C-alpha cells in the first residue's frame, strides 16, 4: 500500500492511509484477532454478516426499482 505525501503534509497523508486501511478491513481484522474466536462463533458471525449484506442488497435493489423510497441524504456540512 502506498500513500503520497504532498508538500510535506504528513497529516493529510496519514488520514489518507487510515482511510485506505479502513476500506481494506485491516482494523476490523486486527480487532478480531485480538482474542480467540471459537469456530462455532465464527460461523454464527459470518452467517449474520451474510444476512445483513443480502438484506442491504435487496433494499438497494428495491429502491432502484422504486418499490420503496430512497434513504434521505444528510447535508454535506454535517457529520
Automatic annotation (TrEMBL):
Keywords: Ribonucleoprotein, Ribosomal protein. InterPro entries: Ribosomal_bS21, Ribosomal_bS21_CS, Ribosomal_bS21_sf. Residues 35-52 have a biased composition (Basic and acidic residues). One of its GO terms (cellular component) is ribosome. Residues 35-79 are annotated as: Disordered. It holds the Pfam family Ribosomal_S21. Signal peptide: none annotated. The keyword Ribonucleoprotein applies. Belongs to the bacterial ribosomal protein bS21 family. This is Small ribosomal subunit protein bS21. It comes from Ancylobacter crimeensis. The lineage of its organism: Bacteria, Pseudomonadati, Pseudomonadota, Alphaproteobacteria, Hyphomicrobiales.
Amino acid at each position: 500500500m502506498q500513500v503520497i505525501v504532498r508538500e510535506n503534509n504528513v497529516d493529510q497523508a496519514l488520514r489518507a492511509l487510515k482511510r485506505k486501511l479502513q476500506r481494506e478491513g485491516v482494523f476490523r481484522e486486527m480487532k478480531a484477532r485480538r482474542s480467540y474466536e471459537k469456530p462455532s462463533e465464527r460461523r454464527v458471525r459470518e452467517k449474520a454478516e451474510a444476512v445483513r449484506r443480502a438484506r442491504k442488497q435487496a433494499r438497494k435493489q428495491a429502491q432502484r426499482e422504486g418499490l420503496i423510497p430512497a434513504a434521505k441524504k444528510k447535508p454535506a456540512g454535517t457529520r
